[in-house]
Specification:
The complex is a heterodimer of chains A (113) and B (115). Chain A is mainly beta. Chain A contains no helices and eleven strands. Classes of the chains: A mainly beta (113), B mainly beta (115).
């Protein structure tokens, strides 16, 4: 039973364009959401997060949008750069609940020069 | 300030052997989490430990797997009598405080291959 779903295993975009990565969740107890970036043979690196009390959080080229009614979040990267090519994981947690994060399966982003 | 350290980075074991994976958290971090990533899957939570205590082991298989985080030294994830299905990347994360999700830093992982 996957509580966090990333339905696109891969995404390819041109350098300079926008990358949009999507994530859906099913557990209403989740109230904190994170995006991680992962290169091969390395651990995940925290990118950006959002609390359920917000619907948008922005950090430089990265923006995360949260739609609680749809249980959907997305990560926008603009403009995309070749160095952004990596696997992106969406993760969810419950503040005040368990310590664990629940991860999606990841989306492999390729940014073509 | 060194990041989360894991060793070995690669470990090869034959079926039936034991695997010991080590995780040294970042300096000042007293909370350790272990996750497993099977091929083509996301990371799955296994266990959460504080110094000398297992807080949540709900993701740990009931048999053959154990974890500890002693007062001194690294956290150890131990897998006894390994089977081929244990082949995966095992990641450790640490954080300074409880439920500081943004400050849960991951190590580079140990890739276990069971022959």
């Amino acid at each position: 039973d996957q509580q966090v779903k990333q339905n696109s295993p891969s995404l390819s975009v041109q350098e300079g364009r926008i990358s949009i990565l999507n994530c859906d969740y099913t557990n209403s107890m989740f109230d904190y959401f994170l995006w991680y970036k992962k290169y091969p043979a390395e651990g995940p690196t925290f990118l950006i997060s959002i609390s359920s009390i917000k619907d948008k959080n922005e950090d430089g080229r990265f923006t995360v949008f949260l739609n609680k009614s749809a249980k959907h979040l997305s990560l926008h990267i603009v403009p995309s750069q070749p160095g952004d090519s990596a696997v992106y994981f969406c993760a969810a947690g419950s503040q005040g609940g368990s310590e664990k994060l629940v991860f999606g399966k990841g989306t492999k982003l390729t940014v073509n020069p | 300030n060194a990041g989360v350290m894991q060793n070995p980075r690669h470990l090869v074991r034959r079926r039936g052997q034991e695997a010991r994976l080590r995780c040294s958290p970042m300096k000042g971090h007293s909370h350790v989490y272990w996750y497993r990533q099977l091929p083509e899957e996301g990371l799955k939570f296994m266990v959460y430990l504080q110094k000398e205590n297992i807080i949540d082991e709900s993701g740990m298989p009931k048999e053959r797997f154990s974890a500890e985080f002693p007062k001194e030294g690294p956290s150890i994830l131990r897998i006894q009598q390994v089977v081929r299905g244990d082949s995966a990347a095992y990641f450790c994360a640490s954080s300074p405080l409880k439920q500081t999700f943004d400050e849960q830093f991951f190590g580079p992982g140990t890739r276990l291959t069971v022959l």
